[in-house]
Amino acid sequence: MQDQNTQNSKPQVKADDFYKDIDDLVVSEDNLRTMAAITQVQVESADNAGELVEKMEELVEEENSLEQ
Amino acid sequence: MKENGAGATNRVQDLLKRLDIGKRSKEAVVATHAKQTVDTVADTGFKVLSKLDEVSDQIRGKADTVKDRFTQGKEYMEMTADNLRNAFYKDLNDDRIVAEAKRAGVDITDKVRTRVEALLEREVFGRLTTLVNDKANPILSKLGLSRKESVASQTEEINVPDRSSRKAANIIEGSALVDAIAEPFKAGKDYDQAKGDAVPKLIETAFGSSELAGKYGPAMLQVMRSIALQSAGFGAESSESMNILDELANDPDVQKEMAENKVNIFQLGAEMSKILRQISEAKQAALESRGESRGISWEYERDQAKASEEVQAIVHELGWKVVDSLPESATELTLDQLMQARVVATKFSQRSIDVIRPLKKIAISMENRFPNKVDEIRAALAEAVAPWKISKAIVRGVVESSILDEETTKQTSKDIFSTIIQPNELFAGLSAEQQTVVMEKIGGTLIDAKLDNIKEGSIYEQTVQAYGEYAQLVVSYDSLREHVQDHPEAADQLMVLAERIMQAKSVMELAKHKMKSEVIVQSRKQKNSQELASSKASNATIEVQSKNARREYYTKTFDDIQERIQNEGPTLKKIINRMGIATLAITGLVAAGEVGPEILEAMIELAKYLVHNVPVAIRVGAVGSGLFGVAHLLRGLRAKMGLRAGEAAVKGRETLAVDNSTSIDQLKKIRDELLAVDNNSAAAGDIDKVIESMQKN
Known about the structure:
The complex is a heterodimer.
Chain A: H1 2-5, H2 17-23, H3 29-67
Chain B: H1 5-19, H2 26-59, H3 64-93, H4 95-103, H5 110-143, H6 152-155, H7 174-182, H8 191-207, H9 210-231, H10 239-250, H11 252-260, H12 265-290, H13 299-325, H14 335-369, H15 374-401, H16 406-421, H17 425-428, H18 432-442, E1 444-447, E2 450-454, H19 459-486, H20 491-537, H21 542-567, H22 572-595, H23 597-611, H24 615-641, H25 644-657, H26 661-678, H27 681-696
Antiparallel strand pairs in B: 1-2
């Protein structure tokens, strides 16, 4: 076959961008875990801030009761 | 990552030794080994939990840190189990290990794999779930440390409706890929056939006539084939070939005939040898790319295609599990659901790769075999995976293109005003003028007590933007979840979308909290200045002075709390701790079971220590000490367990601790993510510093 007769005119092909695109069809475990870590940290931040706001509201009530 | 041959051999020999081959059925011993490993994890978890139970009275309700550690511990135990299961899965599918085991008399058949996987599934997600539910949750409850998110729910069996009726719309047909690649090579589906077609033509061309080629061609072909095979290291004997060549070259009649036709047999031989050698080298390269010594027939590709198609069915089931774990509407999404879906999505990701990888192997093997047909081969691969690519691109594309319209944005601004600001007691107690001042501080303009405009860059605008991002994702999710029902291959994209929604929701909540605290403080300041003026005018009495002192105390307290709220937000340190501690603790828990009760005691001591110290400083210290401790434990763990879970943990730790481009790239991604979702320039600054430091080191 002709293709084989002249096949060594090109270097052996390695995995490259084309194959990276193919790999990217799947969201990797690492990316899933990174996303999860970011989510968890953001949820915690929001929760923490929420608890602090609640505390502020409690203090408002506490102070109001002292004023009366 | 494939191990080298010697490493694989040692591991298999070690495995076989430990399995005590010969006394029981081979399937049973492999399964038993798997079970023993799960036992180790479960027992370790049980010991840790028992110890914690014993000291729970002493640490009850004393520190959030203990709660965090404890809950993390449960998570890590489950992640450890997951890693162990994956390690087994990989081992049982590792070509080298399978080959070595076979040589040693153990045939790791599909039956063995199925049995081990079923066993691990049952043990890991059965026993450990029971352990967490029966043991860990009561302790948490006893400690008064129940968390909002139940880690136990991560491992609960997902209630999936009858999936047998479901059919995925997008199927990758691996066999079609093989056909597509084979198509351009119809003349040579079989390598030998291809060679058979090519070489006679060469001979005919070289000899200059078909008559001469027909006479001497077969002998020449035989010689060249032998030389080629030998050059490729396939063990062919060359002596016979050389004898034939000698005979031909020395035959007076042949010499005469060649001379008459101006053919130099040696020159011809050299040319042909070169060509055939190239063919053989290509063949060898193809074999090497496969990593095994199978024949070069299309059987290899067919096997790969079959493997891909079989795994695809499993991936679809996992995809549907992810979909079923997530609610129909994003507004109903909870952290519990997210955590449950994560476990399945991780499995999905692992198996999805197994759909794609064999197809890649087919294409790479073919590229090596037919380097001149690279474009056609890649086109065939791209076409084969197109169904998945399109489905996933739909999910990604729709999410990115959704835009919140102006009218909705306007309504959002008003909603925020009426739900966050107006109900505030302090704000409501202010005069219209004071309310206007407070609103200006947070970025809103009031006209007739109604919101008129929002200042660019203000916290109000940030809150509206956060809401917009959230709403945009929610709208995308609601339509795309339906898409994934029929296209389970895009379940990972749906998972990412769900994570982004929870992130956006949290960003929005955080922005709201920050704004609310600002409204409280600014309103208070207005009220304070009003009362101060009033008290000055009325010649302050002792009672008023006392009231002012109290007010001052509360004001300072409010300022302190508000500062904490304003500083709250995701930082690099928090994210890395989340990721890093997870990796370390996976190792720590497994290692604890290996090295004995001292470590358990030490863990408890550490927990108690944490209770009595400043949380932030100690957390930082704990991470540091954990690194040193685990580094020592890892050595023993790797030797004793011989499992990839340990190796993965080592790799994870090294990735985090050692300067390398992967870590830096990962950090840059996190930084971009933070900037994208939260415009968190402070955290981004932190990341840049760390990157700079890593680059220096």
